[in-house]
Specification:
alpha+beta, Jelly Rolls, four-stranded antiparallel beta sheet
Length: about 280
């Protein structure tokens, strides 16, 4: 049974997000961090730039998280029982670096229609205002897609540095999570995050996104996995389940998926950023 209460679902519908939701143990969160740092040590360039995407295709640890029952139960409460995994992303802010995420709406450039999808932001480390947690502009998902300036700021963790100007910061809410907790947010909610001013890394593993089987990709091509239920529309090709960590065959599929994703993210852009 879906595990979000009626009260939580109503909060999501009214505000465009829900948090915190307990989904992983601290041990499981530490396992994810260890997997990231193992990859960084053995393959130092692998997770740079576009490499931060689709990590579930080259790591059984991440693929297992995507299929976590507690996560899927919560997702089902929002988008229904037919659930596909269409992508994952790592958002890592190292201590005292200048990385930030400008205020934006995911639906602006991601090409998923209709908006029967939800993004799961899973805290691998504790996230708070000191280390640059997300901030949500509550209720902004009820407005139309806003104009985004493409700034290509080198410190912006978004592909184009896409930015909504004049967001009322005092009206935004910090999404404070313990390691192993997650938030769910709507495709059109305005959100962003600031600098990591702490002495430790701030790591988020993001399933972007869980989509209903009725959701198509209108800007390009994606590779999906079935997480739950049935793929009633069969819009997309399927990706392989990883055979091990950074296995050659999986890396080929990973590279293909990343290339297609880059085409989507930069559709209509005059240049590309580092992600």
């Amino acid at each position: 049974m879906p595990n979000l209460s009626d009260q939580q679902i109503n909060f999501y519908n009214d505000n465009g997000y829900i948090a915190p939701i307990d989904v992983l143990s601290k041990r499981e969160a530490n396992e994810i961090r260890n997997e990231i740092e193992t990859i960084e040590k053995k393959w130092p360039k692998a997770l740079e730039g576009i490499g931060r995407n689709y990590i579930h295709l080259i790591s059984p640890v991440f693929n297992k998280v995507c299929l976590n029952t507690k996560i899927l139960d919560a997702v089902e409460s929002i988008i229904g029982k037919n659930i596909l995994i269409c992508g994952t992303t790592l958002f890592i802010k190292n201590p005292n670096e200048k990385g930030f995420v400008s205020f934006h709406q995911d639906a602006k450039y991601i090409g998923l229609e209709p908006h029967n999808w939800v993004t799961a932001w899973i805290a691998v480390t504790d996230t708070n205002e000191e280390n640059g947690c997300m901030r949500m502009w509550s209720g902004s998902h009820k407005q139309k897609i806003k104009h985004h300036e493409q700034k290509f700021d080198e410190n912006n963790l978004l592909t184009r540095g896409q930015t909504i100007e004049n967001v009322p910061i005092k009206e935004t809410k910090p999404i404070i999570l313990k390691a192993g907790q997650m938030s769910l947010h709507h495709p059109t909610i305005v959100h962003g995050s600031g600098l990591n001013r702490s002495n430790d890394r701030r790591i988020g593993f993001v399933v972007q996104s869980y989509i209903g089987s009725n959701v198509d990709q209108v800007l390009g091509k994606i590779y999906v996995q079935k997480a739950r239920g049935e793929d009633t529309h069969q819009f997309h090709e399927y990706s392989n389940v990883p055979k091990g960590l950074m296995v050659k065959e999986d890396i080929i599929s990973w590279n293909k998926a990343k290339d297609e994703l880059s085409k989507i993210f930069y559709s209509g852009a005059t240049k590309k950023g580092k992600y």
